[in-house]
Amino acid sequence: MPFIPHTEDDVRQMLQAIGVDSIDALFDEIPEHLRAGDLPGIPEGMSEMEVAALAASRARRDGQALCFIGAGAYDHHVPAAVWQIATRGEFYTAYTPYQAEASQGTLQLLYEYQSMMASLMAMDVSNTSLYDGASAVAEAVLMAVRANRKSKSKRILVPRSLHPAYRKVAHSIVRNQGIELVELPFDAATGTTDLEALQAHAGEDFAALLIPQPNFFGMLEPVDALTDFAHANGMLAVAVVNPLAMALLEPPGRWGEQGVDIVTGEGQPLGAPLSSGGPYFGILCCKQALVRQMPGRLIGRTVDLDGKPGFALTLQAREQHIRRSKATSNICTNQGLLVTAATIHMALLGAEGLARVAGTCHANTRALVERLSTIAGVEPVFEGPFFHERVLRLPLPAQDALKTLAAHNVLGGFDLADDYPELGDAILVCATEQRTAEDIEHYATRLERVVTTQGRAKCPIEPKFDNK
Amino acid sequence: MLIFEHSRAGRRAFSQAPAAPVALDDIPPEFLRKDPPLLPEVSEMQVVRHYTRLSQKNFSIDTHFYPLGSCTMKYNPRACNSLAMLPGFLGRHPLAPESHSQGFMACMFELQEILREVTGMSAVSLVPAAGAQGEFAGVAMIRAYHDAQGDTARTEILVPDAAHGTNPATAVMCGYKVREIPTDANGDVDIEALRAAVGPQTAGIMLTNPSTVGVFERNIEQIAHIVHEAGGLLYYDGANLNAILGKCRPGDMGFDVIHMNLHKTFSTPHGGGGPGAGPVGVSERLQPFLPVPMVAKDGYGDYYWLTEKERPQSIGKLMTFAGNAGVLLRAWVYARLLGRAGLIRVAEYATLNANYMATRLREAGFELAYPERRATHEFIVTLKRQAKELKVNAMDFAKRLLDYGYHAPTTYFPLLVPECFLIEPTETEAREELDGFIAAMQAIQQEAETEPDTVKGAPHTLPVRRLDDVRAARELDLKWTPAGEGV
Predict the structure, then answer these.
(1) Secondary structure of chain B in the HEC alphabet?
(2) How many CB pairs under 8 A join A and B?
(3) B chain contacts of residue A403, beta-carbon cutoff 8 Å
(4) pLDDT tens, position by position, A448-464
(5) Cross-chain Cβ contact B60/A91 below 8 Å
(6) Which CATH number fits domain B79-337: 1.10.3720.10, 2.60.370.10, 2.70.40.10, 3.40.640.10?
(7) pTM, whole model, 2 decimals?
């Protein structure tokens, strides 16, 4: 019996001790007519060898295409040590560290994570994670509405240049509490938040302004002006950032006169593989004054009975298992193992290593954009400083181009047609530190052919494994 | 010692610093960071040794019996990890086209189908990242359903007083008021109180079955009838699904919407506090509201995504992409290893182990909270007598168990049983492990009678003794700073 250690003898003796004659008798409180049948829709069990063969064939089938898509998930190198340590049974199979004395390993690691993340963002406090970037934005919105006592509104200013999935998820999660997300347009030339449109909201009552950096298009927002605008108008400033970018770019704690109040973002670039979109982790940092409005777990350093330093969950009075209906959020489980990986990842790379990764990604994306722009009709849509990702206009329907490229096992970018129809045939491209000059040239020659034949090139449909 | 205290200026893990610094001449200086973050400067081996040593300070399923009630700490098969981490799965970008995703989508489709069948629901979405997000999705669907009916007067969610804290917290996140329903002396929902509470304001009820007091809710069909008659819907909190997996199905009990905790019932790891996965299942009438994306299969056997476009009534997206895919893959491996017969055995042996422990502990003189009831996959021992007579409480017993090499059961939950232990052994523990735990409980009882300070001062053998929680909250120290700098 898979994973059940009982011998026949064990079962017999245990039933005897209980005083029943069969295992089935233990279910005697369940009405007979509610008993399940034999579940014909579920396949028979397989051995590990058989499941491994099936899984391997499926994983191989999806192949490893040459990936130039970013759009919130980035194909970074993860050092071998990261997941070898994170999947040690002592981290991998432990529960939430409620019994502090038996969980000092996880607790100290989480405290180190809080320290690293707070410093990366130049903020006072970091929690120990939320689910992912989008759901963290939703939690940050809820937190801002709770925390901004000056504002009587439940309205939030949200730039259209923020990741479309983040906007959708925030809407799904906060709408039932009567919170309204008001969209701010972007400037058609720069792809950054339209400051005139923003100015029109001066003096209005909003709980917070969200500020992405870089924004979804990879463009750098005028974060100092946006932060100061929020504060001048009684709003909290909430940053939504890529943590890897913060190794190079001015961190949100230093934006404007006072720095932002809350920082959120997607933690994936710090040690989480692409893995079809998850598990990743959500970042949440804030100023000290807002710590009691924070959702999620927090770890504090304290001392034990002998005065020896140790670590424990703290400020649990914010949480659902204590406060129930009055908690700051319903969140319980977070993404502990991903934070374990991120902590090891940050320790291995250090500030300089992260900055080099970020710089290399940026340089590769520049090289990609420059090369692709030599193709007739391909050009950047926005002007201005950017980081690590850019929008390109194509001289043919983006969907056709991407489909043909994919048939050649090149994932050429993210099609913006659904989320930004006003941009025409535009794609969002990214080249991480893992893309080589050869990869970029390979993509460019494929795109040249696609453009020349206007997407009609005949090509194989089946993706091939590792044909790069 | 913190990782920061191993740091020395100029030290590096050289293999991990990819290239030489790159000129950033295209980014105006006002956008650039002026001073680097305070990350440690350490060698690769220092990192490996530091975090390996930290790991050794943890209790875990791989190292200890971990009978944490309501958490289902069973063995996490290693194959689930290694297969979910195949390069083809790890390297797949979430926005890769369907042509490059058929292998992954096949696994997700099969998992949806297996979960649907084993719970008796009519459709499943895998999106929610954890139990609490599954609960959110479930209650949001209840609300979307009532709204779609034009029934906007329903403002209340009913929650038994024994429920997990996430239930009332979730109802509030969905804009509902919470009304608590008491539990009767036998551990069942108080039916008369329920009758008195329902009405045109009732949106639904959130129930765990078996309940958090470790017994099967025998009146479930009557509860379903009362709530449905009043126009409300039934929500099933899958925290305790391990107790009934394959033996009876929430769909057959009358539930309209459920969430499952795959990190409990489907043996994906808890990871020191996540990631989890909390898929939701619904009855026919709630299908249009399921969170997106979901995987569907066309007539040619190809898989495709269902998004907001195909599902305009959906409560929408809850995660940036399609949920905790890596966790879902682990659950898929687990379900395929066990298969039909294996899944049914889960509840059988989990229940056998719990009843055996309950019987043996009662024989050893411990008081069960519901001695007249059959234990499910878990049961409650109350130590109120020990607390009163010996001044040794449940927390003292819990901490002393750590010295004996057993992770403590869940303590002080559910809140309505004083000085309680909620004990869940799971199906993967061998009888001798259960016997060892029982012997430890007996030994601690002996100590409580003869040398109570040993128990009250426990643990004695762990890396730290009991921690000062009050100080942790009052003198908040939430991050390391270089000597001399405050927060």
Answers:
(1) CCHHHHCCCCCCCHHHCCCCCCCCCCCCHHHECCCCCCCCCCCHHHHHHHHHHHHCCECCCCCCECCECCCCCCCCCHHHHHHHCCHHHHCCCCCCCHHHCHHHHHHHHHHHHHHHHHHCCCEEECCCCCHHHHHHHHHHHHHHHHHHCCCCCCCEEEEECCCCCHHHHHHHHCCCEEEEECECCCCCECHHHHHHHCCCCEEEEEEECCCCCCCCCCCHHHHHHHHHHCCCEEEEEECCHHHCCCCECHHHHCCCEEEECHHHHCCCCCCCCCCCCCCEEECHHHHHHCCCCEEEECCCCCEEEECCCCCCCCCCCCCCCCCCHHHHHHHHHHHHHHHHHHHHHHHHHHHHHHHHHHHHHHHCCCEECCCCCCCCCCEEEECHHHHHHHCCCHHHHHHHHHHCCECCCEECCCCCCCCEEEECCCCCCCHHHHHHHHHHHHHHHHHHHHCHHHHHCCCCCCCCCCECHHHHHHCCCCCCCCCCCCC
(2) 686
(3) 97
(4) 999 998 756 555 444 44
(5) yes
(6) 3.40.640.10
(7) 0.97
